Amino acid sequence: MKGAFTLLELIFVLIIIGVLSVAALYSYHPQHLLEDVDFVQMRLLRAKYQGIQYDKRHPTPDINASVGCVDLQKEAWLKLAKKKHYTLHADIATSYKTLCFDSFGRPHLEDNLTLNAPIAEPKELLLLRYRSKEVRFILLPQSGYVIIKRR
Known about the structure:
Elements: H1 7-27, H2 32-53, E1 69-71, H3 74-83, E2 91-93, E3 98-101, E4 107-109, E5 123-130, E6 133-139, E7 146-150
Antiparallel strand pairs: 1-3, 2-5, 3-4, 5-6, 6-7
């Protein structure tokens, strides 16, 4: 009875491990668009919760008026991503400059005043494109929820 492996058996094991590792390497595809969607969604939620925490009808000198707001322009997203040590892979397009939330979580576009009327109908907030795929962020009125549509 033998107690060791032959050289031929070891070579076969190495070949099998090599073939499996190459197959695993080619089956891995990074999900850059999905990661970018998560990054943008988390920033929008953070702005909403900051707006809920701070009632802008009664401002205080130690907190500025940009609490609960997020700049939607591409340059601002790139700057924020760099600050957070993240690389955005998707191209971002929007027709709005700023999105703000009041102390009730209601969204306002282009302003930061609680007394102004919040948006009344759903709006396409952002469009993210990466290669041939697109993701649209639809902002719902009153609630401030964002629907994410993938294409």
